[in-house]
From TrEMBL, chain A:
<keyword id="KW-1003">Cell membrane</keyword>
<feature type="transmembrane region" description="Helical">
    <location>
        <begin position="183"/>
        <end position="200"/>
    </location>
</feature>
<keyword id="KW-1133">Transmembrane helix</keyword>
<keyword id="KW-0812">Transmembrane</keyword>
<dbReference type="GO" id="GO:0042918">
    <property type="term" value="P:alkanesulfonate transmembrane transport"/>
</dbReference>
<keyword id="KW-0472">Membrane</keyword>
<feature type="transmembrane region" description="Helical">
    <location>
        <begin position="85"/>
        <end position="105"/>
    </location>
</feature>
<protein>
    <submittedName>
        <fullName>Aliphatic sulfonate ABC transporter permease SsuC</fullName>
    </submittedName>
</protein>
<dbReference type="InterPro" id="IPR000515">
    <property type="entry name" value="MetI-like"/>
</dbReference>
UniProtKB/TrEMBL annotation, chain B:
<comment type="similarity">
    <text>Belongs to the ABC transporter superfamily.</text>
</comment>
<dbReference type="InterPro" id="IPR050166">
    <property type="entry name" value="ABC_transporter_ATP-bind"/>
</dbReference>
<dbReference type="Pfam" id="PF00005">
    <property type="entry name" value="ABC_tran"/>
</dbReference>
<dbReference type="GO" id="GO:0016887">
    <property type="term" value="F:ATP hydrolysis activity"/>
</dbReference>
<keyword id="KW-1003">Cell membrane</keyword>
<dbReference type="InterPro" id="IPR003439">
    <property type="entry name" value="ABC_transporter-like_ATP-bd"/>
</dbReference>
<keyword id="KW-0813">Transport</keyword>
<keyword id="KW-0067">ATP-binding</keyword>
<keyword id="KW-0472">Membrane</keyword>
Length: 279, 250
């Protein structure tokens, strides 16, 4: 009896630190931002920085709370998110389809790839004056810019992913009688998926970047509009709030792709759950 | 488990071997001739090992029989029927396991699908000693286990001809012996015609009914291995003598 009690105690002791360690590990990345935040708050409180140019984090939080209560925060965030997602679906979808087409079918690559590579080298934000001339300053202009921004990362990574599927596995699949449709669906697409997801992550980063620029130029709603409007009235706290919102939305998009990767790439040794926990 | 293995191995007409014949088969890559009028008659259910140095035409011969390359001349027939390209009754075990990493072991074995493929794949996995491992990812398997899955994938459709392209070359000695016993056991029960390409003379003598030495694209030796089965992988004096004969011809 006593012996078993000792054993169970020992086992608990062995378990406890391994439960706490992951908690600590997940908290560790937040230490530096928290310390910076505290320093910033202190600097603003003690007048080390001009509060008008750099309000304290508590002031920004208060501005955020007020905007949340009067509904403007949700309103602007929803409008920005909608623009971002519509642009992503159009531009990213086209990039994915063209990457697939050019990766699978040599004549299409010969015909299209060099043109696309040429266009890729134009910074898409350089198109802004042209886009304003074409579409004016309405929704289409912003969505168009986002679509162009997200197109290339998805195009290049889908193309690259399709082309780098292990040729030995493709040959095996042919020998085992898979027809072209099954080959694409069961071998090539899943094989290209890690690369496609890398493209998606790049695209999501560019999606927010492009949207920020587009909304700052001209808009009557959205986070960019909110910050530009606040600048005119010297509401620095709202400007900072907008910047933080962009950071949070970007982080959220990144998190979503990570979850997607973990779910879709379960087979990949690098993504296998409790890969490191096993011992 | 033995019960399960036996039931899935029960003799049925479709699993019998098919004869194989190459008549005057030629193949050259550009101006370089690899095979110049090659002849080979393999009766149904025979186990043939093809031995030779690298560059001697072994791999080309294998890829021609598999339908992965087109011959520049000559005729290939399987089961008396002329063949042009891939043949559904012929399966190939590659040097590497070539499992699809994003499909489970079971999906890999059943890659050719067909009616009832799940049940057949489960049964064949049991036959190669991997019962119940169907839901695992290939990445967690050892080299020997991967090659067992590849063997199950080759055998699940009950092929008439099995081609093996140095499939055990990358395995350690013990695992290789295990694979030899497994392959010999399955072959004795299913009687698929087997062509084993190898550079390992001892492996050829241990497994085959007949050893062919391929040298500069021609048959340098065609010898029958008349040692009763199951064979022991020990130094049988007859095997040693045969190995010496083969090595002299290589």
């Amino acid at each position: 009896m006593a012996w078993s009690a000792v054993v169970s105690e020992a086992r608990e002791e062995a378990v406890r630190p391994s439960r706490i360690r992951p908690l600590l590990a997940s908290f560790a990345p937040w230490i530096v931002p928290l310390v910076l935040l505290l320093l910033w708050e202190a600097a603003a409180r003690f007048g080390l920085v001009t509060a008008r140019l750099m309000p304290a984090p508590s002031t920004v939080a208060l501005a955020g709370w007020k905007a949340l209560l009067d509904g403007t925060l949700v309103h602007h965030t929803l409008i920005s998110t909608q623009r971002a997602l519509v642009g992503l679906v159009i531009g990213g979808g086209l990039g994915f389809l063209l990457g697939l087409l050019n990766g699978l079918w040599k004549p299409a690559e010969t015909l299209l790839d060099s043109t696309l590579q040429m266009l890729r080298n134009i910074p898409h934000l350089a198109l802004i004056p042209l886009v304003i001339l074409w579409f004016g300053i309405d929704e289409t202009a912003k969505i168009f810019l986002v679509a162009i921004g997200v197109f290339f990362p998805l195009y290049i990574n889908t193309f690259h992913g399709v082309r780098t599927v292990d040729p030995q596995v493709i040959e095996m699949a042919r020998v085992y009688g898979l027809d072209r449709a099954a080959l694409i669906r069961r071998i090539i697409l899943p094989g290209a998926l890690p690369s496609i997801l890398v493209g998606l992550r790049y695209s999501l980063g560019l999606m927010w970047l492009t949207l920020i620029v587009a909304e700052t130029i001209s808009a009557n709603a959205g986070i960019g509009y909110m910050t530009m409007n606040a600048r005119e009235f010297f509401m620095t706290d709202v400007v900072l709030l907008g910047i933080i919102l962009y950071a949070l939305l970007g982080k959220l998009a990144d998190l979503a792709t990570r979850l997607l990767e973990r779910r879709l790439l379960r087979w990949h040794p690098a993504y296998q759950a409790n890969h490191g926990d096993r011992n | 488990m033995a019960q399960v293995a036996l039931s899935s191995l029960a003799a049925d007409p479709a699993s019998a071997g098919l004869s194989l014949s190459l008549a005057g088969v030629k193949k050259s890559f550009g101006a370089v001739p690899v095979l110049q009028g090659f002849h080979l008659e393999v009766p149904a259910s025979q186990f043939v090992a093809v031995v030779g140095r690298s560059g001697g035409g072994k791999s080309t011969l294998m890829r021609l029989i598999a339908g992965l390359e087109q011959p520049s001349g000559g005729r290939l027939t399987i089961g008396g029927q002329p063949v042009n390209g891939l043949h559904p009754d012929l399966r190939l075990l590659f040097q590497e396991a070539r499992l699809v990493p994003w499909q489970t072991v079971l999906d890999n074995v059943g890659i050719a699908r067909g009616p009832d493929w799940r049940a057949r794949a489960e049964a064949t996995l049991a036959d190669v000693g991997l019962a119940g491992r169907g839901q695992e990812w290939p990445s967690v398997l050892s080299g020997g286990q991967k090659q067992r899955v590849a063997l199950a994938r080759a055998l699940v459709g009950r092929p008439g001809v099995l081609l093996l392209d140095e499939p055990f070359g990358a395995l350690d000695a013990l695992t290789r012996l295990e694979m030899h016993r497994l392959l010999e056991g399955l072959w004795r029960e299913r009687r698929f015609t087997t062509i084993l390409i190898t550079h390992d003379v001892a492996e050829a003598v241990a497994l085959a009914d007949r050893v062919i030495v391929l040298k500069n694209g021609e048959t340098a030796l065609d010898i029958t291995i008349d040692i009763e089965r199951p064979r022991r992988e020990l130094a049988d004096p007859r095997a040693v003598d045969l190995q010496r004969q083969i090595l002299e011809a290589v």
